Amino acid sequence: MLKQETLSKGYVIVATKKVSFLIGAQNLAESIIDHNEDARITLFTEQVFLDDPEMSKYFTSYENVSPTPGGTIREKMYGMANSPYDLTFYIDADCEIVSDDIANVFDHLDDGSDMVYVNLTKQGAKHFTEWEWGPNILDNGYTEGAPDHLTHCGGVALYRSSNPLVREFMSDWYTLYAMQARGDWNPPEYASIKVGNFRQWDQLTLWWLIYHSPKYKSLKWKFFEDNYRWNYFTSFGYNTDGTHNCHVVDPSRDYWKTKPDPVVNHYSSWMAKD
Predict the structure, then answer these.
(1) d(CA 63, CA 253)
(2) Does the pLDDT of residue 17 top 70, yes or no?
(3) How high is the pLDDT of residue 4?
(4) CA gap 178, 100 in Å, rounded
(5) pTM (2 decimals)?
(6) What percentage of the chain has pLDDT greater than the value 70?
(7) pLDDT beyond 50 at 142
(8) Residue 145 clears pLDDT 80, i.e. is over it
(9) 149 — pLDDT class (breaks 50, 70, 90)
(10) pLDDT over 60 (residue 29)
(11) CA angle 223, 174, 198 (to 5 degrees)
(12) What CA–CA distances, in Å, run from 121 to 113, 188, 209?
């Protein structure tokens, strides 16, 4: 294995479907540079945006801008699989960096780990699963149809992209998600969930690959020790000129109260406006 200091390190952002995500990605990239002026950042976006001269103002903070193939609601796994770096930190486009510690995120791979994720605690999992499967799903145990693992959050991902098997993992994640979005993916582990109940969300395919695919059992993954710092959920929106119009943490949610000193603020993409 190459020494960490000889490996290229960079950040990957993916912004498709909405101009608001392109604006968010530019704001995210600027915030990365604010806290790590030597950062290398690659954007993956749709060809239609690349062909529009009006969009060029949103491509000023990247060393690379590459097209996605299109065809799914979420193209992020394509960008993750095609990172130009040896070590990659993927960040959702509706995030903002608020700490200089972003420059040290790659140190979490020093122990030889292949992938590092944020862990959804019971409170965090409750928030997401109630959104998908209805209230009280975790209060009374896992109800019929719920996944058996509610853990890894795909909003950020640190990974060793120099490992070909990790790249295959990201590519397979993209392929499975595309199948899920078409209604063509219904593995036996989730057989009790009707295809129509799969929200257009990439968590299910991520969990399946990690916990149920024998192909990737050899990959070494872990959770961030300072877990919440790297994916701090909040609420956010954009004005048409890209400036912030709200920045609100809901104090009623205990799992938001407990997140200390965040590095990555993760805002609510459904509040973003075109």
Answers:
(1) 38
(2) yes
(3) 57
(4) 35
(5) 0.82
(6) 70
(7) no
(8) no
(9) low
(10) yes
(11) 85
(12) 21, 25, 20
The residue to which tokens 């862990």 are assigned: 119
- Domains of the chain plus CATH, in order, are 4-123+149-271 (3.90.550.10)
DSSP annotation string for 113-177 = -SEEEEEP-HHHHHHHHHHHH-TTTTBTB--TT--S---EEEEEEEEETTSHHHHHHHHHHHHHH
Question: Hunting for tokens 């290398």 — which residue is that?
Answer: 40
**What CA–CA distance (Å, rounded) separates 181 from 227?**
29
Q: What residues does 117 pair with on adjacent strands?
A: 223
pLDDT at 146 over 60: no
